[in-house]
Description:
The protein contains 12 helices and 9 strands. By secondary structure, the protein is α/β, with parallel strands linked by helices. Strands 1, 2, 3, 4, 5, 6, 7, 8 and 9 form a 9-stranded mixed beta sheet that branches. Strand 2 (32-39), helix 2 (45-50) and strand 3 form a beta-alpha-beta unit. The mean pLDDT is 91.
Amino acid sequence: xxxxxxxxxxxxxxxxxxxxxxxxxxxxxxxxxxxxxxxxxxxxxxxxxxxxxxxxxxxxxxxxxxxxxxxxxxxxxxxxxxxxxxxxxxxxxxxxxxxxxxxxxxxxxxxxxxxxxxxxxxxxxxxxxxxxxxxxxxxxxxxxxxxxxxxxxxxxxxxxxxxxxxxxxxxxxxxxxxxxxxxxxxxxxxxxxxxxxxxxxxxxxxxxxxxxxxxxxxxxxxxxxxxxxxxxxxxxxxxxxxxxxxxxxxxxxxxxxxxxxxxxxxxxxxxxxxxxxxxxxxxxxxxxxxxxxxxxxxxxxxxxxxxx
Length: 308
């Protein structure tokens, strides 16, 4: 029986699938199983998976029902005491699960652990560093079974939704401040192709988190930010959805939100918003690249010292 179960849902992800699967099966921690759920793919994903001959690999074919349902299907087959999941475009470092498993043995008070990650592009070039990512993690299966399953209404934000509920109902999440995954950013990733949907889903989920006590936050600032994200892409239908939700919930800052909504639809409001988001985005990229440079410098220094 496996100690760790990894579920990897994929929908038409043939381009990076083999590299992602290999990074799971080639871990230094061997007592694991990888459950690949082919979620109605019409590409060569099934053919790629047929090329493997590893008893630790389980392949499940389903109709296309979305990532949340694919993960729920995969975890129904999981036998490990510790669970994780991955994407078909991310790549683990070889010792990722050994490091996380050791951490969990030493910290029984934690329900899960998460690590930092390197951001890579389509050609696997390192372009940034991400701290405390929800991309590389390990959590206790018995804790996961006590909270609701992955929810389809949290599409695009399944990882954040799950871990906020895990922390609230299951216990604290530990952190390893080193990168153990390569998180790939590319134009075909779901968070990019469905970017116009994300603000409305996020607004609804964050409203639920804050009102139910799952997380703390400034509700008004959250709604304002989601409107701004929509306006950047002129996603006026999504802005209408956010406003309808705010009116339905009778939020106390509704008048201010109405004014913001109208202003963002004007040429001046759109331009001002675009400049603000662009500056914030560039500052974020600069910080990410500086963190990457710091990490690479320390890694090179450690390598030289170990060879002295």
